[in-house]
């Protein structure tokens, strides 16, 4: 079957394409393309060019307009003539089968969308049988409505019906339709098998969670690449894989953490992202169960990111989608060491924007808004980590007393008896 994602972690050159629409201005589009470039880099591609176009909405046939598509085609042709071959064109939104087919026919190059790129990264990052099964199911869900495009080499070669109904149809009726149906059946059967396997994994995970004893569960949640794994390493004092790439963590890692004389379970979960495919959320149900069943959420935010407020909204929306909203939550603003702002000149009378706020002003704003439910730290520089531990200790203690009222011996401090 024809590949539709990057199958190997090799350096290929890529061109990015995004739209500026009524609901997405130029600044936001550039921000999305920055993220798409980071995704491409994580997948092993090098971005060499970006194209954007202003449209009310995506063209249903070719995503961008005819003129813009011709411009992209011309750029690819010129690069090939200069012996700088372009490996792929990546679009910032999910494309339909028709759009992919039409764009490929015009550009004659590998076409990816944001969803297929994320799926490829997940496939590359998956280490355990659980993660691999979840990724495979998500890939098949993505592939199913696009089978016609994947099987274009087996399409019917002749038209017409009946006795001599179509010119050149005799002997030219290809196996395309038959193969399409057969492949669809194979994929549906495979998906059923994967769902059964995930159901078994769900049962195993549920049993594991029941066997963890009477301990409060705390889950780290947040946008991808905000420092969750680094914070996990700090709090649990154990090595957890952390890397400055998107989706460094796919499998949920659970560690027993003890602060003072209070033990609890801390889990590091997969990061969320804008335009996260619904199929991916559905497939990662067993992984996200750790979030659903947590007693306390630590929502980690990269305060140095220019659009961190939008990232907070994305995480909150995803939590609502998986049925985990409404849980006790502490907002933890990480990377305060990397925060920068633009100071306004004294003679500049234009209104101040969030880019002009100092870290102290931003902290006061959020502390007034969230009261005691937000903290500001730097996991890398270990700034205010002790304060975080103290707050987490108090919250976990309160939850433990409520949930296990007859197990309060954990909080007693025993002095050594004098001999």
UniProtKB/TrEMBL annotation:
Family annotation (PROSITE patterns): G_HFLX
A Pfam family hit: GTP-bdg_M
Residues involved in Mg(2+) binding: 229, 249
An annotated GO cellular component: cytoplasm
Domain of life: Bacteria
Molecular function GO terms recorded: GTP binding; GTPase activity; metal ion binding; ribosome binding
Keyword tags: Cytoplasm, GTP-binding, Magnesium, Metal-binding, Nucleotide-binding
Major location (coarse): cytoplasm
UniProt keyword annotation of Repeat present: no
Cofactor: Mg(2+)
Residues that hold GTP according to the record: 222-229, 247-251, 268-271, 334-337, 378-380
Subcellular location: Cytoplasm
Residue ranges constituting the Hflx-type G domain according to the UniProt record: 216-400
Gene3D superfamilies, A to Z: 6.10.250.2860, GTPase HflX, N-terminal domain, P-loop containing nucleotide triphosphate hydrolases
CDD domains on file: HflX
Function: GTPase that associates with the 50S ribosomal subunit and may have a role during protein synthesis or ribosome biogenesis.
Subunit structure: Monomer. Associates with the 50S ribosomal subunit.
Family: Belongs to the TRAFAC class OBG-HflX-like GTPase superfamily. HflX GTPase family.
Protein name: GTPase HflX
Lineage: Bacteria, Pseudomonadati, Bacteroidota, Bacteroidia, Bacteroidales
